[in-house]
Amino acid sequence: MSKTSIPNLVSRLSLLIILSFFFTTVRADNAPDPGLVSQGEVLFKENCKTCHAVHTQEVGPALKDVTKRRDVKWLSAWIRNSSAVIASGDKYANDIYNKFGKSPMTSFSSFKDDEIKAVLAYIDAESVKAPVVEGPKTPTPGPGGETSEVKEDTTSTIILILVVVVLILVLTTLIVFLSVIKRFLKDKEATLTEADKDLVNQKFDLVVVVKSKMFITIVSLLFVAIAVRACWLGALSIGIEQNYEPVQPIAFSHKQHAGDMKINCNYCHTGAYKSKQSNIPSLNICMNCHTHVTEGSRFGKDEIAKVVKAYNDGTPIKWVRVHNLPDLAYFNHSQHTTVAGIECQKCHGPIEEMEVVRQHSPLTMGWCINCHRETAVNSKDNAYYDRLLKVHADSKKKGEMKAEDIGAIDCSKCHY
Hints:
The chain is mainly alpha-helical and 416 residues long. The protein is 54% helix and 0% strand. It has helices at 5-30, 34-47, 66-69, 72-80, 82-87, 91-99, 113-127, 148-187, 194-201, 206-211, 213-236, 254-260, 265-268, 283-290, 302-313, 333-339, 345-348, 365-374, 386-394, 411-414. Helix 2 crosses helix 7 and helix 14 crosses helix 15.
């Protein structure tokens, strides 16, 4: 190798290392932030998934590579107020508006710049992935190939059969034992007294048993106990509407919307996470989808037609209220859902499985107090609780700080 070739080789290797470092840095800088993508996924599923998918057209257009078609500034304006962008005469916006039946997209004016960037980051991350084809949902098989539900039912049946078999064996043993004792006494009858002979030879007389004082006393006490218990349970159930399941003016299936279609509760009940009340959805929210979806898989066209007619007539639907706390009790939805991080199902039950909504929980004072005694305070990333956590740590109480430890079972918390 010549002397001149060595410096050239070193120079080329240095240049290659520098270029490799440069391109690696560029790729790292362009790689989406996992935290941002994760935040965007949550926002997308809570607010956008009802009408949009990344790879397929739903109520609205597919969003794959949307950041390549429009810049972030345009997309931010569209997300916050699509009607304003359409009114400005923007050709692209008007083309979309006309293509999808002149149905305006829900405005998300409260979205911050960081939240919009997070949603777009999630869409970009999903755009490079292959579309997922969802097959029919089946229960996850267990180690032996059986599903957990089938295994649970089989176990219960086996236990019941074993209990019945044991009871039959005990009864048979007692009958055999009595027969053996009676036969033994019969063999010794010559040595028995008259009283013992009467006892061995006596026959069961139902009339005598029924007329006996002991039987009458037991039956009377049993009747009084049942009557007292029924009155007591009846008194305790006054004002409790657990399992109340009224017929609604429109056959609306939560199982289909929240379960099968996985629409987030917050999309329809917009106040559940940010206000005291979880409001009944307005017809505008219903029409976001039912402008296009005019026939349902369960009830056909008739029920959706009632929604459309009410919207066109400007007449609100008179839904029958299911959950109703008395005015004397204070309850704040956002304090429980947003601050405490409690899922809707904790109080409302498996709402995503209900064809007709019913009141799952008793909603009694005792039920609320028990929850406050058992539920740990959600203090993560919340500086409001820092001093309380320190006081709790210095106290004699062990374990997590529960809601009752910060006054959640005081009368004035709910009755003010």
